[in-house]
Amino acid sequence: MEKIIAPDLDDTSRRYRPGTGHGSRISRLIVFFGLCALTLTFVLASTVVNLHSSSPAVPLHVHEILDKCARLPLKPGPPDDFGNRSYSDRYVPGTKAILITNGTIWTGRNQGLEIIKGDILLHGGIIKAVGYVSQSLLDSTTEHVTIDAHGAWITPGIIDVHSHIGVGTAPAFDGVEDGNSFKGPIQPWLRSLDGLNTHDDSYKISAAGGVTTSLILPGSANAIGGQAFVIKLRPTKERSPTSLLLEPPFDLNGTNVNPHQPPRWRHMKHACGENPARVYGDTRMDDVWVWRQAYNKARELKNAQDAFCQKAVAREWENLEGQTFPEELQWEALVDILRGKVKVQTHCYEAVDFDNFVRLSQEFEFPVAAFHHAHEAYLVPDVLKKAYEHPPAIAMFSTFARYKREAFRHSEFAPRILADNGIDVVMKSDHAAIVSRYLVNEAALAHYYGLPENIALASVISTPAKVLGLEHRIGYIKEGYDADVVVWDSHPLSLGSTPAQVIIDGIAQIPSAYVSAKPASHSRAPNTPNFNREATSAVKFEGLPPLGPSESLEDLVVFVSVEHLWVRDAAGNGIVEAFGSRRSGSGNTVVVQHGRVLCSDVASDSCLSYLALPDIRVIDLHGGSLQPGLVSFGSNLGLQEIAMEDSTVDGEAPDYFAVSTPPFVEAGYLPRAMDGLQYATRDALLAYRSGVTVGITAPSHSGFLGGLTTAFSLGSAHKLERGALVQNITAVHVSFGRSVIPSISTQVAALRSLLQGHTEGDHAKWFRLVSQGKLPLVIRVDSADIIATLIELKKEVETASQAPLKMTLEGATEAHILARELSEANIGVILKPPRSFPYTWDQRRIVPGPPLSEDSPIAHLVKHNVTVGIGPQGTNAMADLSAWAVRNTRFDAGWEHYESPNVISKETALALASVNVERLLGLETMPGEGDLVATTGGDLLDFEGKVVAVLSPRRGVVDLF
Ligand SMILES: *[C@@H]1O[C@H](CO)[C@@H](O)[C@H](O)[C@H]1NC(C)=O
Ligand SMILES: *[C@@H]1O[C@H](CO)[C@@H](O)[C@H](O)[C@H]1NC(C)=O
Ligand SMILES: *[C@@H]1O[C@H](CO)[C@@H](O)[C@H](O)[C@H]1NC(C)=O
Ligand SMILES: *[C@@H]1O[C@H](CO)[C@@H](O)[C@H](O)[C@H]1NC(C)=O
């Protein structure tokens, strides 16, 4: 994990980042961390009110002093007349008014339950009217453009309370790593604004997902990391960081606009637990001590200020002879926290951390705005309720978890459990941990797992506005509020919903939007399954509920009321609908024995004969579906339990280019992923319960030579069970990465030499099979330039060997540039992530997909007849930080279908995540051997179906959940 990508997950850069480095940076950083750990000394600067000590009792600057004292107790908030404003302070003169007609408007009011059908008028950077726009009002605006929403959903802009846009950058550069300072554990004087790079591709990309406002936080390497700032994600004429700010503190630029106005909210980042510990070698005990030390210092200052001001206000100047207003620039922000002027934003994961921080809030008497990440918050609502003044909001991920121990007990049911406990729920991105463009999808996932519709929408709109102290101007569609509005192509909680227009400060951000027609069912929130049992179990088992099947049935099982049956075609190249809604009748029946379908036609005699047997087990799918089990490739699934916890991971293959290699590596030994497999990991079981039945995994490696990939069952308890290893060896895997040594051309040279048989030992044997076209070669690569070289290399090898080489690219973000050439060269692609993001330079040329481009990257490749499989959406391109995301494969595939229905049918979408992955990775599935997945309420490809069973012929069972 690269800290600039996701500063909050891990501050370390010791892991390999595909496409950017083989570790040259690692040693530098270790030295860097080592040095920084010692830097605990604080340099105290002080600014004082300039009193003339020579003057008699009454100081010259008496008004300044009294103003200062008068401001101390003022609480932040909008001025009283804020609601009467006719222009926004962010209004760009010359901006035309916008009239949006015929919207279905989710206003955010009335607990998110108010929906108004009607129009909205935006002018002067604010909302002028909602619902009915009078002709006289319209006439009073000089000129306006009209957007006909045709009944579409309209919401306020999406608000992200946890983002690192700008303090990192996309693509990532060593020169822009401004998220974390390593100069000490307590740094309340630092400001994210001071590191806000304006050339991050994320601004535009995130805005295209409807995100209009973000809180830019420093990273989490420090117990106190610094001040955070709220920005709007639209470009400004000034092009400066400052011009992006929303309601910055008045004195930011040294001018107090109006000393008698209430101040504006400030934000302070704190972090508990593993991250500060990793950087400073601190324990949790040390972190609490440095907090207490810092807050004690602030409290002393505050008390001194209050004592000073008490005398000043009483005009007891003789008692203040020679004294100045007590303040220290380094500590003023903490003093403001104690005065209730700062939203305390705290990264905390575990019960112990909440307990500590809540105690701190009580000891020093300050409220906590939100706990961020907060993976265990749902287990300890009573602790949250003990926080000073009010329970903090909980800002979290939907399904992103288990990347470190602190996040191990996460539950996808946490949002609904917290909401049931009356706690404010916020979904956040930690951009680019989750690309904030997809923040509304986090709310949609929370909704799928049980968060009510009104609360789910509020969780990324109105509730974050409250957490930021900005609910007087954003987070609602209400007269006088900021003109930040999103027009959606479907209900925002439906799968793959995409803005058709995003308006920030009354300015449209998407010049010409590409959106596809969504089905009628997507014009309302999905009818989500019932997960009450699972949610109760999550709490009962303290976040580690049993995930394996509740029953495994070997004998006859009959699925009734099956609306769709999708199966592999006879050649195993695609998916076909065996029967579907087109076939009428009272619902179809499928008979299964030993996990294998015996018949799927009630009308046939053979089927009827089974149905007559006694003791058959009947499972009613209530109009659900049977579809192929999905296959995942592209993560370290099966090789790790907790990515950042070394004691739980397989480790890394030795680097092929290392100066000294172990003797057996020298002898050409190629690691086999099958030898390192771990079964029944939580990521594997969660994926299994979500319809992914087979994992294909390469040996974990950060260097060039990976080894031999393996295919295994995600439902098996251990390797020796029947069907646990699906195919021992499926392909040979190598990775191309950017670093100083070895160069890309050296890596190409190495691959050429391996393919030409210039090496000895185990390598030679496997690469010979590759050159003979008997085993696929899978190459992790993103850059179109390297891909072009590989296309040439393939031809070169084929000319020599006279056999077609099976080549598959993994990652392949820039493959679209060479779609035609890849298709001609018969090279397939596992696109990972399926929805591209420019994490690195080699991934910078993305197809952004709707609304920014007509095609999604996958639709573009499919149109060019490239065989495409999808990898996990994951956290970035890294294999070890993608395993958590495998469970979402079904939704990623469905997303492709709903985004490009004319290019990607449901059958194609299912193929993208099953047979295509198998073919591209060399997994051979005999006819009838492939798994099927049973869903109720809908199919795998949407937010309505729930997986209830897996049918596995290889394992000879039907697993029930
Ligand atoms: C709003 O749009 C819907 C969908 O296009 C249409 O059926 C309806 O007639 C429109 N209503 C108005 C008032 O224009
Ligand atoms: C300082 O910022 C305020 C807005 O907060 C602005 O009105 C003022 O003009 C700025 N002053 C300078 C010198 O830039
Ligand atoms: C897979 O590997 C196991 C253990 O090495 C071996 O027993 C088994 O025969 C292999 N299966 C195949 C199909 O190669
Ligand atoms: C893709 O394949 C189809 C069917 O073979 C063919 O008609 C079409 O022209 C091909 N498209 C491209 C871009 O090669």
TrEMBL record:
The chain crosses the membrane at residues 29-49. Residues 1-20 are annotated as: Disordered. InterPro entries: Amidohydro-rel, DHOase/Allantoinase_Hydrolase, Metal-dep_hydrolase_composite, Metal_Hydrolase. GO terms for molecular function: allantoinase activity. Gene3D superfamilies: Metal-dependent hydrolases. GO terms for biological process: purine nucleobase catabolic process. Keywords: Hydrolase, Membrane, Transmembrane, Transmembrane helix. Residues 414-504 form the Amidohydrolase-related domain. Pfam families: Amidohydro_1. The keyword Hydrolase applies. GO terms for cellular component: cytoplasm. This is Composite domain of metallo-dependent hydrolase. The lineage of its organism: Eukaryota, Fungi, Dikarya, Basidiomycota, Agaricomycotina.
